[in-house]
Amino acid sequence: MQPMRREHGLPLLCLSAAVLAAALLPRAAVAEGVTPSEARRLRDECRLQAFRKISFIQVKDMFYHAFDGYMQHAFPLDELRPLSCRGEDSLGGYALTLIDSLDTLALLGDEERFTSAVDWVGKNVRFDINKTVSVFETNIRILGGLLSAHLIASDYATITSTAGGGTLTLEFGVLSRLTNNTVGS
Length: 185
What we know:
Blueprint lengths: L8 H16 L11 H18 L2 H18 L5 E3 L4 E3 L7 H12 L3 H14 L10 H19 L13 H13 L6
Helix pairs in contact: 1-2, 3-4, 4-5, 4-6, 6-7
């Protein structure tokens, strides 16, 4: 994996500067002769241009930078602590980041890593143990990660978003539909 080139950071820098300026400057602070609505329109256009400059390749590079860092320094623990570059079982010890990355690996078409990760999860992750876990994190990252990876890899027409409001209903609804078992819905 090659390090990111300098030009990759320019769109993010522009976006960061726009967000920072919007947060720090008073709403009335606009250039002379520019109405607040024109300033908002210009700000939004700058943000849109910054987002458009981030290519699929850049997004893929950023994902693999994070994923490879996790696999090298933290796997099979839940998460990578970025400052110490060490792993931590913060949410139950289920290789949470690996499970949470399954859907992205499937979307990127990385069959080799996806298959390897699914095989590892199938052989090593157990849910029939007595542990204290965060219900929210378990639902959005483990249940949601496994379900969305299954739906994407199975080429289902319905792809679900696993974060946000109503997440329990969403994940348990999909689980019920896939298993033909209405428990939890």
